[in-house]
Each structure stands twice: as C-alpha cells, then as structure tokens.
Amino acid sequence: MRVAVLLASLFLLAAPAQSAQTVSADDMARFLAGIEPAPSSPLAALAAEPSWKLHAARLNSTFEGIDKRQLSKVRAWSKANLTVRRPVLFYMFSGPDFLYANSFFPDADTYVLAGLEPVGDVPDVTRLPRTAIPGALGALQTSMRSLLSISFFRTNDMRRQLRATPLQGTLPVLYVFLVRSGKTIRDVSLVHLSETGEVKTGEAPAGSAGARGAKMVFAGSDGREQTLYYFSTNLSDDGFGNGFAQFCERFGEGNAFLKSASYLLHSGAFSKVRGFLLQHSALILQDDTGTPIGMFDHTWQLRPHGHYFGPIKLFAGRNQPKLRELFRRGNPGAIDFGVGYRWHPHESNLLVAVKQEESVQAAAALSASAAPAKALTSEPLAGATTAPKPAPSPARAKAREPAAPRSPMQYARNKRAKVAAARVKRPLAANFRPRVRETPNEGLSGGIMKFWKFLLSGAS
C-alpha cells in the first residue's frame, strides 16, 4: 500500500502541471514575474509552492532596486529631455529590453524591437512537470541578470541562456518586463513577415526567409492600448531586406533608440539599417555605440549628455574624436544614472539627436540640462553649413601667403642684422652691462655661457 502511494506521488510530481482552465497571457506573465496571481487563477496552487515564493522574493528585491537606482531616474530625465513625441519607437539591436524602451519612451503607441535572440514559444508553465518549474524560473532569473544589473544584454550569453531552459526564447523575459512595468497583457501571438512587410499570424512556413517574431498587445494603468513587436532577425545589409525594413517603413517617421549596439552601425555592413534610422527618425537617442557622429549632417541638432570617455577596451578601435570634441565644448547635460557599456554612474554618455524641423518646438520645452544647443548652433560640428566668407583682396591674399622656409644660416644673418639696426637707432648707455642668465639660452651651450661670464668679470 505504501509503495502504491509513493508511486502515485512521484507520478503527480512528474506529470505536467495542467489545469482545466485556460491561463491568460497576463496570468502567466504575473506568475513568471513573481507577482501573486488572483486566488481564482489556475496558477494559484503553483504560486503557493515554496520555490515560487523564493522566486517572487528575489524578483521583488531586484526590481525594487533597479527602479530606485535606475528606472525612476531614467523616467525623470526622459520627461525633461525627450520632448519630441512620435507614435512608434524603433529599437534596433535591443533583444527583449522593454524595460529601458518603456522608461525612456513611455508614450509610444507601438514599440518595434529587433535582435538576434530567438522568439521562442508562448510560455506556459502548466505544460511543464512540477519538478521542472523551479529550475525554469531560476534560468529565467539568470537570463535577465545582466540587463537588471548593468543595463544591457550580452548577446552571446543571452542566446545560449534562452535556449538552455524549458521557457525558451525572449517571450518569457518580455512577459516579466511588461508586467513589472505596470502593464496588463491583453493578447500575445506569434507572427512572421512577408517579403513586402505584411504581418502574418502564426508560425512561418518552412523555407520562408521572412523575419519571425511576436506581437503583444497591452495596456498601462490609464487603459490606453499599446503594441509591442519583437522580431528575431539579421539587421545587417544581407538580412535587413527580408521584409523587416518594409514592415518598419509602414510606420512612417518615428523615434529611435540605440544602446550597447556593439558599434555595428560604425560598419559598412549595416549601412541599410543606419540609413533607415537617419531617414525615418525625428529623434534618435543613443550612446556612443550607435550611429557615428560624423553621419549626422546639418539637419540634425546634437545635444550631448553625461561624459564621453571613449569605448571600453573590447572596442578600443571605435574611438570618436569628433564626439569627444562635442562633449568637450558642448556643455553636456547631466545624467544621474548609468547606461550602456560604461554603465557606472558618471561614466555614461547619451546623445539626443533631433531633426531641425523639430528643434524650434522642442527647444522651448528643454530643461536646463539641455543647454548645449546654444553652443552647437554657434559653432557647428561636422556636416553643419555656415555662410561663405567673402574672398580676400589680391593684396591681402598675397600678404597671407606663407613665407619661404629659411635656412639656419639665413636666420642667423637676419637676426644679427636686426640687432645691429636696433643699436644704431638706440645707442647703448655708457654704463650698460649685459644681463647674463644662469641657464643656456638662444642655443648657447653651458660652456660658452661660462666663458661669457668670465669675460664680463674681467672687464669689471
């Protein structure tokens, strides 16, 4: 009898944690995020497990810390400095980073995120054996750790971690970030793109080259409906035209965000996505890993914030002298949080690039920390145009021509001639005595100086 009971218990533990009721996407997200589900939720029993209680306590502490340390400051800075509003945000090389996208751009109607990280399946812990759930939740914590601690995902680690867990892909991470940002998820579906950029629901057919992704519809506390698209796609010139570029073009002009992008936009292999962002963005917020500053022409107003110390050692060849000059003379605004590869406070840099059509309206709403605009308009950087100066007269032009180079002997003869002419014009006084310096001067060696002193002492 005891053996039968024991076997039955083991069978229950190994069996999937299925429920007769359908679990909503928001319920699932709250469970994964360590937020207590409603008592009527099919996941309420799983949330009573000690392993889930520990998971919830850890995430409560983690998100409380990052909100106090980072996100609350990001929201305040964004409200003061990002005054150009557009309904869509393009966030390339993002991975599943909805946290910073929402904190910097909370008013977007549509978020378009793209990276190499796989989408995965729509998460459902009820399909997992009960014994596998604690490990899956632990792996989920690990996959989020770098962004929650240093503000960015390490792409190679992220891809490996998202495949080595029962909750595979970016969707579980996006679930957590959405509900921890105060959102309610209303609908989630897997999608793929046609070659013309049309969104198709469901898995892509075999052999399809279109980008694969997910569409998530959600709402904040105000009830306003918003949409998040995440696509797993190659953003290089070889892959950008697989329907993803055409999909993005359908939104018209938006804002753009670039952070910890491995300096890929500095490469010629990513010219198409770089050109798209420059053409279709009203405002670009980026750190130094985004579009090189030399690519911004005179139609952009550039406002630096923070401190530019150059790239980290891993990207030592990506230093930007023009960006350094902008930060040196541009009176950068302050940022009191860390972001990007130089994630320590007071080491990070951000550049707010605004197209000139918006500069007049945006300038009135800028905070005092956005003062660099004046310096930039009075002394434009690369790409800026100024009124042409009038050509000098022939006589002045000839006077400005550099003199021909002189030999050392010619220089010495001219020097002696000038000294002689000065003596003729103003004779020396009878009691004149040359002043002798204690150190060699005008090319004289120490020995000659001592001899000169000796002669003077004998003459006296």
Walkthrough of the structure:
- The protein contains 15 helices and ten strands.
- It has 460 residues and is α/β, with parallel strands linked by helices.
- It has one domain.
- Helix 2 crosses helix 7, helix 3 packs parallel to helix 4 (98-104) and helix 5 packs antiparallel against helix 6 (155-163).
- It is globular.
- The chain starts with a helix and ends with a helix.
Topology:
Layout: H1 2-14, H2 25-32, H3 50-81, E1 88-92, H4 98-104, E2 110-115, H5 133-150, H6 155-163, H7 171-180, E3 184-193, E4 199-201, E5 212-219, E6 225-232, H8 244-249, E7 254-258, H9 271-280, E8 281-286, E9 300-306, H10 321-329, E10 349-355, H11 356-363, H12 372-378, H13 394-400, H14 408-425, H15 446-459
Parallel strand pairs: 1-2, 1-7, 2-6, 7-8
Antiparallel strand pairs: 3-4, 3-5, 5-6, 8-10, 9-10
Helix pairs in contact: 2-7, 3-4, 3-5, 5-6
Produce a short descriptive summary.
It is built from 15 helices and ten strands. The protein is α/β, with parallel strands linked by helices and 460 residues long.
Name its key features.
disordered C terminus; alpha/beta; ten-stranded mixed β-sheet; 38% helix; single chain
In total, the number of domains comes to 1
How helical, in percent, are the residues? 25-40%
Give the CA-CA distance, first to last residue: 128 Å
Using the alpha-carbon principal axes, give the shape: globular
Instruction: Point out poorly predicted stretches.
Output: 1-15, 367-389, 401-406, 436-460
Strand order of the largest sheet: 4-3-5-6-2-1-7-8-10-9
Gyration radius (Cα, Å) is 33 Å
Would you list the SSEs in sequence order as H and E?
Answer: HHHEHEHHHEEEEHEHEEHEHHHHH
